[in-house]
Amino acid sequence: MLKQIIEALKERYPEPKCALHYTTDYELMIAVRLSAQCTDARVNLVTPALFAKYPTLDAFADAKLEEVEELVHSCGFYKHKARDIILACQMLREVYDRKVPDTMEELLKLPGVGRKTANLLLGDLYGQPSVVCDTHVIRITNRLGLAKGKEPEKVETQLRAILPPEESSDFCHRIVLFGRDTCIARKPLCAQCPLRPFCKEFSGHTEP
Ligand code: SF4
C-alpha cells in the first residue's frame, strides 16, 4: 500500500520542490528559519528585500541585529529569528568554511536549526535521504496510517523505517503540497482524494 501511495503522489505532483525561494545554501537555511510558525508565502515576500540588503554570507554575519529584526518582523518571532540568522551565519563563516554542513550532527549545532530544518537542508542541498516532519507530514501520515503520534521525532523514526531512502525527501515535499490542496487540516477533501483507497482515516485500513 505504501508503494501505491508513493506512486499516486508522484503522479499528482511530478516535480515537488521546496516552496521557499533561495539561491545559495545559507539563503535556504535563513528562509527555513523564517518559516517556523509562518507561511512559506509570507517568507517569500520578506526574503527578496532581506537577501538584497545582505547579498553575502559576510553581510549577514556582520549585520546589525535591529536592522535584521525590522526586515523579518512580519514573519513573527522576529527577535529570535533575527538573532539565530546572524549567529548561524557567523558560525558558517567561522567554523564551517562558509558552507552549510552536510551532516545532521553538525547542522544541529547551528543556532535555530532543529531536526526539521536539518532534514530539509540535507534533502534539498545535498540530496540525502531526509524526512521533514512538519505539520502536514505528521497529520497526513497519521491519517493514512503510515505513522502514529504527533511527536515529530517519533514520526520521523517511523517514516524512516518504511520509506525507501531515495524517495523520502520528495515524499515529504509531495505530502506538504497534498496537505495544502487536498488533505487540509480542518476539512480534508476526501471526495476528490486519490489516496482515498489507501487511507486509514477514510476506510479503516490499518496496514501501510
Ligand atoms: S481520504 Fe481524506 S483524510 Fe484520507 S488522505 Fe485523502 S483527503 Fe486525507
Number of domains: 2
Global shape: elongated
CATH topology annotation of the largest domain: Endonuclease III, domain 1
Secondary-structure element order, N to C = HHHHHHHHHHHH
C-alpha Rg, in Å? 18 Å
How would a textbook summarize the main sheet?
none
Quote the distance from N terminus to C terminus: 6 Å
Features:
Endonuclease Iii, domain 2; 12 helices; binds iron/sulfur cluster; 0% strand; Endonuclease III, domain 1; elongated; single chain; 208 residues
Per-chain topology:
Elements: H1 2-12, H2 25-34, H3 40-53, H4 57-61, H5 65-72, H6 78-95, H7 104-107, H8 115-126, H9 135-144, H10 152-162, H11 165-181, H12 200-203
Bound molecules: iron/sulfur cluster.
Notes on the protein architecture:
This protein has 208 residues and is mostly helical. The chain has two domains: 2-15 and 133-203, Orthogonal Bundle (Endonuclease Iii, domain 2); 25-126, Endonuclease III, domain 1 (Orthogonal Bundle), CATH 1.10.340.30. 60% of the residues lie in helices and 0% in strands. The chain has twelve helices and no strands. It has helices at residues 2-12, 25-34, 40-53, 57-61, 65-72, 78-95, 104-107, 115-126, 135-144, 152-162, 165-181, 200-203. The longest helix has 18 residues, at 78-95. Iron/sulfur cluster is lined by residues 143-144, 182-183, 188-190, 193, 195-196, 199, 201-202.
